[in-house]
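Anyone able to model this chain together with IPE?
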Amino acid sequence: MNDEAEKLESPLPRHVAVIMDGNGRWATQHGLPRVAGHRAGVKSARLIVEACAEAQVETLTLFAFSSENWQRPVDEVNALMRLFIEVLQREVATLHKNDVRLRFIGARENLPTILQKRIEDAEHATAANQRMTLVLAVAFGGRWDIVQAARRIAAKVRAGEIDVQDIDDAVVARHLSLAGLGDPDLLIRTGGEKRVSNFLLWDLAYSEIQFSDTLWPDFDRSDLDDAFAFFGSRQRRFGRVGIPKEASVD
Ligand code: IPE
Ligand code: IPE
Ligand code: MG
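re: yes, here you go
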C-alpha cells in the first residue's frame, strides 16, 4: 500500500492534539478556586499521555497555555507558571524512563526564566527517546507560529538562501513549530466549546475534530476511546473523492 492509501485507511491516529479546556468550570462546579481545576487537569494529562503511549500514538500535542491566556488575571497566570515548573520537576524523570521525548512549542522567551531553563533541560534530557513525542504548547498561538515562520523565511530570502518562487507548502511547514512531526490526525477539544481558539491553524487543515462536552479534569480513558472510535469511523478524503468500502482492494 502506498503512503497516501495507507493514510486514507489508517484506523488509529498517529498524531493526536488536544485542547485541554474546562479546568476553570470544573473547579467552580466543585466550589474550588480555578487553580484547583488546573491541578486536577494535570492528572488527566498524565493519564492521556500514558494511554496514548500504550496505544502507540507517535506524537501527542497538548495545548496548555495560549498566547491569549496572558490576558487572564495575573494570579491565575502566575499559578499556572508555578504549576508548569512543578510538573516538569516532578514528571520529566518518569517520562524519560518511559522513553518519551519532550518538545515545547510557543513563545518561550515570554516565560519565566526558571521555566525556560526547565524546558531546555527536559528537551535535552529526553531528546533521544523514541516511544512517543510529547509536544507541550505553552505560550503558543497558531497565528504566532505562522508569523515566526514568515519572519524566518523572509530572513532566508534576504540572505539569498531561498528564492521567493521556491516558497511552497513544504517550505512553510518546515518553519512551523511542529516541523518534522506531521499534521495532527485527530484533534480533541474538551469542555464543550466548538472552536479552535488559535491553536494549530496551519497544521489542522485536515485533522478530524472530536468535540467533547467532558471538562478536562474529568476526561478519562473511556473519553479517549470514544475519540479513537470516532476517528476510526471517519473516511479521510483530503479533498479527493472517497473510495467506496466495497471497491477498495488491499
Ligand atoms: C483550560 O481550562 C486551561 C487553560 C486555558 C490554561 P480553562 O482555564 O480555560 O477552563 P474554563 O474554560 O475556564 O472552564
Ligand atoms: C484554549 O482554551 C487554550 C487552552 C486550552 C490552553 P481557552 O479557554 O483559552 O479558549 P477560549 O477563551 O474559550 O476560546
Ligand atoms: Mg477555557
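The chain has eight helices and six strands.
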